[in-house]
Amino acid sequence: MRLAIFFSTLALSTAALANPSLKIPNDVSLYSLNMLNPKVDSSLFGNNKSVELNEGWNQIVFKYSPSFMVREDLKSVYSDIIIAKFYVEDGEVTFSLPEFKNYNLAQANISPLVWSLKSQQQANLQFAQDVLPSNGVQLGRNYNEDARQYNIQGGPAAVSVSYVTTKVNGDDVTREANQASVSQVKSSNSTAFSQWQTLYLNATPKVQQQMKQWLTEQN
């Protein structure tokens, strides 16, 4: 019985440690997340798309491009390429974007883009933003590199850059991470104790207190 309760608590603790996420509307193109290609999770049914965030500071590069029927043609209006940073601890973050009645109104009002980010409780998240500079027309633009250069040069939406060399498919690659990237700890599968220990060390103070309280109640 206690073993079942233990693993039930372990599962709840794991859920509590789940990273926050960002919901992506269909008319938003997310080009870069923390100077890396976003790993977008798309729902098999419906239009829901989301990407996992770091617990802490995150930086995104995106474009908003709503579409309208003009006579018999579908036309899109494009915002500037926005680079933004924001802080989040948990839950699902959503975009709040302007809704234009027609194509002409969108053309006239999409730049500068008035937008915001909402927490899971629909509270406004604080963020800093900027327009990501470009060198004219760029085919196959590397938004990760552009974000890295922006961070090096500095700006209101800049984050600190560190260089981490890792191995991907046997080849050396350079990956960039910001100062608030959360270290991903692999839970050991050898014993339940090592799993518990790993979860405890990586838990928030609130979750750690709940775990200690549960252990105390078992005595």
From TrEMBL:
InterPro entries listed in its UniProt record: UPF0319 (IPR018635)
Keyword Signal: yes
Signal peptide bounds: 1-18
Keywords carried by this UniProt record: Signal
Recorded family membership: Belongs to the UPF0319 family.
Protein name per Swiss-Prot or TrEMBL: DUF2057 family protein
